[in-house]
Every structure is written in C-alpha cells, then in structure tokens.
Amino acid sequence: MSISRKTAWLFMHKARIGMKSSELHPIEGKAFVDEFVFGGKEELKTGRSYDSKKKKVVAAIETSKGRGIKRAYFKLIDNYSAEELKGIFVSHISEKASVITDKWTGYSPLKSEYNITQIKSNNSDFLEINTVIHQLKSNLRSVHSWIHPHHFQKYLDEFSYRINRSIHKQTIFDNLIKRLLKHKHSSYKEIIIST
Q1: Which segment of 20-24, 37-41, 139-143, 168-172 scores lowest on mean pLDDT?
Q2: Cα–Cα distances in angstroms (integers) from residue 56 to residues 34, 51, 120, in the given order
Q3: How many other CB atoms sit within 10 Å of the CB of residue 13?
Q4: What is the structure's pLDDT at 2?
Q5: Which pLDDT tens digit goes with each residue over 119-131?
Q6: How many CB atoms lie within 10 A of CB 75?
Q7: Which of 19, 70, 176, 191 could be joined to 161 by an S-S link, Cβ 3.0–4.6 Å?
Q8: What span, in angstroms and rounded, lies between the C-alpha atoms of 16 and 12?
Q9: What is the CA radius of gyration of the chain?
Q10: Is the CB of residue 163 less than 8 Å from the CB of residue 69?
Q11: Domain total for the chain?
Q12: How confident is the model at residue 40 (pLDDT cuts 50, 70, 90)?
C-alpha cells in the first residue's frame, strides 16, 4: 500500500491510545487483583524483586457467575507498594466491589478504603485471573518481538480493550473508529515523548 514504516507505527499507536479505558465504569461486583512481572529470565531475580529489569504489572478482573470473566484491566507499576497498587483501584475498582487479593502486605493499607479479602494464593481460587495473566503474557510474547518500555502501558490497554469486548466482535472495529474520531489529535512527536 506504499505506506512507510513510520506512518504504520504512528497509526498503530494512535489506535492503542484510542483503546485506553475511559475509567468511567469501575468494577462494582466481585473482583480479583494480583501483581506479576513480564520479561526474560534474570539470574537471582525471582518473585517480587524490586531491582529487576522486568516490567511490574498489577491486574484486576471482574468475574461473573459461573467463573466467567466480564472485564480485565492492567496497570504498569514501579514497585509493589500500597501507593503503587492503589492506582488500579482508583482507576478501575469501586469502593462497593468485593475484592480478593493474595496475602501480599502491600494490599493491607488499602483495606481502610476498599472491601478487600486477603487469602493465600493458590491456583484454584485465582484460576480466572491467572488464566487472563497467562493469556496476556502469551499474546505479548507471540505477537510482538520486542516492546519498548516507554509504550508498554499502551499494549496493556490494547489487550484490555480486546478482552473486554470479546463478546462484541461485530462492533469492536466500529467502536474503535468512533473512539479515534472523538480523541484529541496525537502527533508523532507527542507519542514518542509521552509517558
């Protein structure tokens, strides 16, 4: 189609910007929140290593009856402190929601504002959120050969947008075009330097 790589790259990121959540409809039902890392193996860097080069992410999902997944959101974080973890609560979880997390101490200070139950993490209780996290990691590894850290949140927003509208496949493209038309102009320079 004689489109330059730069033009294709720009449109790709404009589309991802259009996929960012409006944050106007927080989760009000049953939610699971968990944190994870994404990146290659590093020697002596396991679990919640604070000085790891791996990307740290916190995930939140809303479940429906029958253990289905209604919505999923992801937020890039700098560390596992309560202050950082709170970001996904502020953006995507209502104070009315019933939230389940593992026993990580970073969630404890948030109990004064949110209805949080902390339980020991195991595969059966956290099956839904573990499945979504696995799907996200598989998607990022198989579709993209490399993701610049500067744009990583956009890729998380894209995955959320796709999974949250997976039951509306007939209208997802039209919905995205409408979002792009309503969104303020984003120039190449703005996208490169945006955080």
Answers
A1: 37-41
A2: 11, 11, 21
A3: 19
A4: 82
A5: 998 778 899 999 9
A6: 22
A7: 19
A8: 6
A9: 17
A10: yes
A11: 1
A12: low
CA dihedral defined by 119, 124, 129, 135, rounded to 10 degrees? 150
Query: Which CATH number belongs to the domain containing residue 143 in this structure?
Result: 3.30.420.10
Of 63, 60, 73, 65, whose CA–CA distance to 110 is shortest? 60
Instruction: Please report, for residues 58, 85, 119, 122, 166, the alpha-carbon distance to residue 108 in angstroms, rounded to integers and kept in the order given.
Output: 15, 11, 12, 19, 33
Is residue 152 within 8 Å of residue 66, measured between CB atoms?
Answer: no
Mean pLDDT, residues 78-88: 97
The structure tokens listed for 177 are: 């075009």
11-15, 33-37, 186-190 — which one is most confidently predicted on average? 33-37
Residues in the chain: 195
Q: Which pair of structure tokens corresponds to residue 165?
A: 């509208």
Residue of 78, 107, 79 lying closest to 93 (CA atoms): 107
Instruction: Give the side-chain half-sphere CA count within 13 A for 168.
Output: 13
pLDDT tens-digit readout, 48-66:
556 677 899 999 999 988 7
What are the phi and psi torsion angles at 70 (to 5°)? -90, -45
Q: How far is CA 50 from the centre of its chain?
A: 20
